Description:
Helix content is about 0%, strand content about 50%. By secondary structure, it is mainly β. The chain is globular, with a radius of gyration of 13 Å.
Amino acid sequence: xxxxESGGGLVQPxxxxxxxxxxxxxxxxxxxxYWYRQAPGKQRELVASITAGGTPLYPDSVKGRFxxxxxxxxxxxxxxxxxxxxxxxxVYYCNQISTWGQGTQVTVSS
Length: 110
């Protein structure tokens, strides 16, 4: 399996971004998918997950602001991020089981 993220960038506080992660080489629809992030000097943390059946789950830090979704016809998982805060600045990674993408940088700054 190969995972490729895109959609990161620089956004002002309160802004929005949508990340995408395209999977290739595996049976995408059968697996849960995860988005993690890692800020400089901090541990990697889970920010959203979605089951094979489409049930999402979020930690309190992003609940109500982030939305994970998947399109099994496109082998793609999305992370819609709204009301972004400076503390959301990190490299965001897509994950499926033991496979990781290369990450996409999200910077929230005025």
